[in-house]
Design a protein that fits this description.
The structure holds two protein chains of two kinds. In chain A, 23% of the residues lie in helices and 25% in strands. Chain A is α+β, with helices and mostly antiparallel strands. Chain A folds into three domains: 2-142, RNA polymerase II/Efflux pump adaptor protein, barrel-sandwich hybrid domain (OB fold (Dihydrolipoamide Acetyltransferase, E2P), Beta Barrel), CATH 2.40.50; 171-209, Dihydrolipoamide Transferase, CATH 4.10.320; 244-439, Chloramphenicol Acetyltransferase (2-Layer Sandwich), CATH 3.30.559.10. Mean pLDDT of chain A is 80; it is low at 82-120, 124-158 and 210-215. Chain B has helices at residues 33-36, 44-69, 83-90, 106-112, 116-123, 133-136, 147-162, 180-191, 212-215, 239-254, 284-291, 295-305, 310-334, 353-372, and strands at residues 2-5, 29-31, 98-100, 168-173, 196-202, 205-206, 209-210, 231-235, 260-265. In chain B, α10 links the parallel β8 (231-235) and β9 (260-265). Chain B has two domains: 13-338, 3-Layer(aba) Sandwich (Rossmann fold), CATH 3.40.50; 342-372. Chain B is α/β, with parallel strands linked by helices. Helices cover 45% and strands 10% of the residues of chain B. Chain B has a five-stranded parallel sheet, with helices on both faces. Chain B has a two-stranded antiparallel sheet with strand order 6-7. The radius of gyration of chain B is 22 Å and the shape is globular. Classes of the chains: A alpha+beta, B alpha/beta. The interface between A and B is large, with 83 and 95 residues. The structure holds thiamine diphosphate and magnesium ion. Thiamine diphosphate (TPP) binds next to β4 and β6 of chain B.
């Protein structure tokens, strides 16, 4: 086995981010085959495979930043222990080399001349409508006339270069610079009184310290580079928001009985709500379908893979519980807990991060009643559960305090119309209101 | 504050897109009286040889690029797209002539016969010069933009004084024409009628700066005329046009006709070096347009039109390119760093006493470290 360490892909870089893998573990790869897109501080570059062999292990996930010199990929290489090629001519032992008729450096004639005469046309090609340029010995003259050449970017746009602001920056002697640094004073913010615009020790005294309000003006804004999961979320949400016609529908639901059930047993409220969603999804199968705009196809899945949106320190991920329709509420409780834990640890597999076909987002944990979620790319519905509130509610002809929750469904309007989305939502609500109904469904 | 360079006047820039060409994009052989006179000996098999050269040059370039990404080399300035400009010009020279090039002249290095193991060491930052210049009559790669034009002119002036018929070719980029060195070189070449060929590979960019920024919208080939040096604008992606232009310039130089300037209009399809990201300053569409003018595809089509069966030619090219890539990869992977005292080598032709003393001091210091660690 050979372990490939991440090289310095620019001059003097210390780390790089894995943007995307183009291979997975177990794949056979050729020498120089592109393996990954890697972002350095300078550019996104393609990593060509350093070996021919099989990918044994990928040491980093997409979005992860890897230190230069850290293990990146393990390869199973066929002739692992074979001596390295010597760099001399013997190294040319490829299968095709033996039928190579020992070419001289100049190369023997290899073409088979046919007795046809090459086509001859007057130069240059008509497509380019040339201006006549006389050449050699003397001067090139450019004749007038209307040039028909293709315009290039810099012909059309005048070239404008932004220059640094004019004026000299403030300067100071080294001890004064040191003092300014110690006090946290920006030299450029001080009015210099010394000769030739030099900042003096006294100038620093009048400028006060950085803790004084006038010392260092708060910048109006700061910028930082968006990387990692944040960047992927940004790309996924942009794609989804810009390519999918979203619509949403919401419903206030009396969840008193479901909440009581959760409090009396071992199944969590979220797991019970998931059961309600799964039952409704079975009655409205298109909510888990995928719309393929490129081929104009609707893909329907045999199973419901329920995605759970988990907010982690690194950002938002959607973890899938595959074939969730076959699980009872206790199994779902355990599965949700497992996915949330592993999402926070960052140990979910690529499959778990990408296999969901419908997503549930429990925004209620943030204390809000709801919102209109953006679809996880490739999916047709996402359900947002709001916070459960005790509020006055009509119940059996009277106004009493009940536990009420707003449920929202965002959907892909190419796949579902209002009728289906509303029917789906009403079915979820019916089970949440009367959990016993689940027995009948 | 901003500086605005006005858009070039299209009337003045006429001719910008119609440099001399004898091989059309579809492989048609075009007729050009000036160039044709120097291509009489180029039959199918000679053209196929140029094809093989270009395929090998490209393969060397792409292999080295990959080796840099794999951590075996530290830097690589790719020439992808410029194969014809270098191969055509290199094949117009005799082995006794000299080449003074920039850091991007890998095609010249290969065809002049540079030792690939030595060559790989340069880009692994293990060697300053790499090959032995006197073995292949090619000076070490020059990183200081344009400086090699002075070296080339100097060599040519000396050759003339010595009464030899050697010719010097100096290769540089579009950006280099803005350097004082290149302009001084043109003055000296003109004043002394030095037997030198100025080959400017106008690959459209000096790192991120498009050529229009510094050309005033005029063809670069107009400049040398102001120094009294005749000049040609040639399709740098047409290997035959480049060969013919090179032969014209070399013949003039060898026969006492003085300097000639060739602007090879081409395109750098890759990044400036492996640490550059060209997407920040140019459009992908622009690159695509130049892929359509690929110098190697064009020759394949030309050979097909001549009735050559390309399958064996391609197979042969692959064998040679694969062997070269393998040899170069092995050299890059197994290169060993030089001993620190090599810094004292090659400073002067004859070692100086002072340098010898410094070398001895250095070796003593290194030896003392070994003592200490005992
Ligand atoms: C004297 C000098 N100034 C600046 C540089 C930095 N530099 C390195 S490459 C380059 C651009 C050269 O462009 P061009 O002459 O068109 O050659 P190309 O890289 O396109 O082959 C510059 C400015 C340098 N190496 N030497
Ligand atoms: Mg250039």
């Amino acid at each position: 086995m050979k372990t490939f360490l991440l090289p310095d892909l620019g001059e003097g870089l210390t780390d790089s981010e894995i943007v995307a893998w183009r291979v997975k573990e177990g794949d056979a790869v050729e020498l120089n085959q592109p393996l990954a897109d890697i972002e350095t501080a300078k550019a996104v570059v393609e990593l060509p495979s350093p070996y021919e062999g099989t990918i044994a292990k990928l040491h980093a996930a997409e979005g992860e930043t890897v230190d230069v010199g850290a293990p990146l990929i393990d390869f199973d290489v066929a002739d692992d222990d074979a001596p390295a090629p010597s760099g001399s001519d013997e190294s040319a032992t490829d299968a095709s080399a033996h039928d190579d008729p020992a070419p001289s450096p100049e190369g023997g004639p290899v073409a088979t001349p046919a007795d046809t005469v090459a086509e001859v046309r007057d130069a240059p090609a008509p497509e380019e409508k040339p201006e006549k340029v006389s050449v050699l010995v003397g001067h090139i003259t450019v004749h007038g006339g209307k040039p028909t050449r293709k315009r290039r970017a810099w012909d059309v746009e005048p070239f404008t270069r932004q220059e640094r602001p004019s004026g000299r920056p403030n300067r100071a002697m080294p001890p004064v610079r040191k003092l300014a640094k110690e006090r946290g004073i920006d030299l450029q913010s001080v009015r210099p009184s010394g000769r030739d615009g030099l900042v003096t020790r006294a100038d620093l005294e009048t400028a006060g310290t950085a803790s004084g309000p006038q010392a260092q003006p708060q910048p109006a804004s700061t910028r930082e580079k968006v990387t990692g999961l944040r960047k992927h979320t940004a790309a996924a949400m942009t794609q989804s928001a810009l390519t999918v016609p979203h619509a949403a529908t919401f419903h206030q639901v009396d969840v008193t009985e479901t909440l009581a059930l959760a409090r009396s047993g071992d199944a969590s409220f979220l797991a019970l709500a998931s059961r309600a969603i799964l039952l409704a999804a079975k009655r409205w199968p298109d909510v888990t379908a995928a719309f393929h705009a490129d081929t104009m196809e609707l893909e329907r899945f045999a199973h419901i893979n329920l995605g759970i949106a988990v907010s982690t320190d690194r950002g938002l991920v959607v973890a899938s519980i595959d074939e969730a329709e076959s699980m009872d509420a206790l199994e779902l409780t355990a599965a949700i807990k497992d996915r949330a834990t592993r999402a926070r640890e960052g140990s979910l597999t690529m499959a778990e991060l990408t296999s969901s076909n419908i997503t549930i987002s429990n925004v209620g944990v943030f204390g809000v009643d709801g919102g209109i979620p953006i679809l996880n790319p490739g999916e047709s519905a996402i359900i947002a559960l709001g916070a459960v509130r005790r509020m006055p509610w009509e119940h059996e002809g009277e106004i009493v305090l009940r536990d009420v929750c707003t449920v929202t469904v965002s959907f892909d309007h190419r796949v579902l119309d209002g009728r289906e989305a509303a029917g789906f939502l009403a079915d979820i609500a019916a089970v949440l209101e009367r959990p016993a109904l689940a027995l009948a469904r | 504050m901003s500086i605005t360079v006005p858009a070039p006047d299209p009337a003045l820039a006429a001719g910008l897109d119609c440099p001399l060409r004898v091989l059309d994009l579809d492989g048609t052989r075009l007729h050009d009286p000036l160039l044709d006179a120097h291509l009489g000996d180029i039959d199918e098999s000679a053209l196929a040889d140029l094809y093989l050269d270009m395929v090998r040059v490209r393969r060397l370039d792409t292999e080295a690029f990959a080796l840099t990404r794999q951590g075996h080399l530290v830097l690589w300035p790719p020439l992808l797209g410029q194969e014809a400009a270098q191969v055509g010009a290199a094949r117009s020279l005799e082995q006794r002539d000299w080449v003074f090039g920039s850091y991007r002249e890998h095609g010249f290095a290969l065809l002049r016969g540079a030792d690939m193991a030595e060559f790989a060491r340069i880009w692994k930052a293990y060697a300053h010069g790499g090959w032995d210049p006197h073995e292949i009559n090619m000076a070490p790669s020059q990183i200081i933009i344009g400086a090699q034009s002075l070296h080339g002119v100097g060599y040519a002036m000396a050759a003339k004084m010595d009464g030899s018929d050697e010719v010097a070719l100096t290769a540089f980029g579009d950006g280099a024409t803005s350097e004082g060195d290149v302009n001084e070189a043109l003055v000296w070449a003109s004043a002394f009628q030095a037997p030198v060929v100025f080959l400017c590979q106008n690959n459209q960019y000096a790192i991120s700066e498009p050529v229009a920024v510094q050309s005033g919208g005029l063809p670069l080939a107009l400049r040398p005329t102001g120094f009294g040096i005749p000049s040609m604008r040639v399709d740098g992606n047409d290997v035959l046009a480049m060969l013919a232009a090179g032969r014209i310039a070399v013949e003039r130089a060898r026969s006492g006709g003085g300097p000639t300037f060739i602007e090879a209009v081409t395109y750098r399809r890759g990044p400036h070096t492996t640490t550059d990201d060209p997407k920040r300053y140019r459009d992908e569409a622009e690159v695509e347009a130049w892929v359509a003018k690929d110098p190697i595809d064009r020759v394949e089509r030309a050979l097909e039109r001549m009735g050559v069966d390309m399958d064996p030619v391609r197979a042969e090219a692959k064998v040679r390119a694969d062997r070269l890539a393998k040899e170069f990869r092995a050299a890059a992977e197994h290169a060993e760093p030089p001993a620190a005292e090599e810094i004292f080598d090659n400073v002067y032709a004859q070692p100086s006493r002072r340098l010898e003393r410094q070398r001895a001091e250095h070796l003593a210091f290194v030896a003392s470290l070994a003592e200490e660690s005992k």
